[in-house]
Design goal:
Blueprint lengths: L6 E2 L2 H4 L4 E6 L23 H14 L7 E4 L7 E3 L4 E3 L4 E4 L5 E6 L3 E7 L4 E7 L1 H5 L2 H13 L7 E4 L9 E3 H4 L7 E3 L4 E4 L1 H11 L7 E3 L14 H4 L6 E7 L2
Parallel strand pairs: 3-5, 3-7, 4-6, 10-14
Antiparallel strand pairs: 1-2, 2-15, 6-9, 7-15, 8-9, 8-10, 11-13, 12-13
Bound molecules: zinc ion (ZN).
Zinc ion binds next to loops.
Family: Belongs to the purine nucleoside phosphorylase YfiH/LACC1 family.
InterPro entries: Cu_polyphenol_OxRdtase, Cu_polyphenol_OxRdtase_sf, Cytotoxic_necrot_fac-like_cat
Pfam families: Cu-oxidase_4
């Protein structure tokens, strides 16, 4: 078994030596099935000691000290916090900082992790955007908060959208569909639709002035990529969590 975590990065963000970012896969790590192998979610039924060991492997691979991490207590909200110090942030699904050596994290298993960087003003953000957050435009609101608080110019902002559940695997009911514009919905049998959450997120970015060529997507479907990603929709309570992290070094 391979212990060393397999991590992924965005080419768009990887060109900046002072920026550290990555998102995890389920490869590497020490958890047993069904959480095999790199489960980074403590709120799962996995052995917490295994999860802690996985987190150590993940952050060591990135050369990040664990006392420099920020963990949002994700609640599928549109709550955004500007942070200056490490620790746990209550009820929050987006974090923004201009503080160097502070690393923002997000946990997902089908919801989209969104990584944001303004290389001009040296500001980073991370967003957890599932259907509830997307319905409340959490991505657009985060970009707006970066503009208002840090004077970030949208045309400078770079975005990486990590893996999430793709439209082909994302059936929703009528009640959920009412929150989304028709252009993101396809009929899928009586009272049901397929939802293109990824494209809805892209539109929330471009509406705020982020350039399309500054948006990189990992369009892998978490639900389909059984060996590569955890998927809550596929595995329910037997699903582990991936983690994303972004921050600037001084
Ligand atoms: Zn799929």
């Amino acid at each position: 078994m391979q212990i060393q975590p397999v991590l992924k990065k965005f080419a768009l963000l990887n060109q900046y030596p002072s920026l550290i970012h990555a998102f995890s896969t389920r490869k590497g790590g020490v958890s047993d099935p069904p959480f095999h192998y790199l489960n980074l979610g403590l709120s799962t039924a996995d052995d917490p000691e295994r999860v802690k060991a996985n987190r150590r492997l993940f952050f060591e691979a990135l050369n990040i000290k664990e006392d420099r991490l920020v963990f949002p207590q994700q609640v599928h909200s549109a709550n955004i916090q500007i942070v200056k110090k490490a620790g746990v942030v209550a009820e929050c699904d987006a974090l923004i900082t201009d503080t160097p050596n502070l690393f923002l994290t997000v946990q997902t298993a089908d919801c989209f992790p969104v990584f944001v960087y303004d290389p001009q003003n040296k500001v980073t953000a991370v967003i957890h955007s599932g259907w509830r957050g997307t319905a409340q435009n959490i991505v657009g609101k985060t970009i707006r908060a970066m503009r208002e608080t840090f004077r970030c110019a949208p045309q400078n902002i770079l975005v990486g959208i990590g893996p999430g559940v793709q439209k082909s695997c994302y059936q929703i009911d009528e009640k959920t569909a009412q929150y989304f514009d028709k252009q993101f919905l396809s009929p899928d049998g009586p009272g049901h639709f397929k939802l293109d959450l990824l494209e809805a997120i892209v539109l929330q970015l471009t509406e705020q002035g982020v350039l399309l060529e500054h948006i990189e997507r990992d369009a892998t479907c978490t639900h389909c990529a059984t060996d590569e990603y955890f998927s809550y929709r596929r595995d329910g309570n037997y699903s582990g969590r991936m983690m994303g992290v972004i921050g600037m070094v001084k």
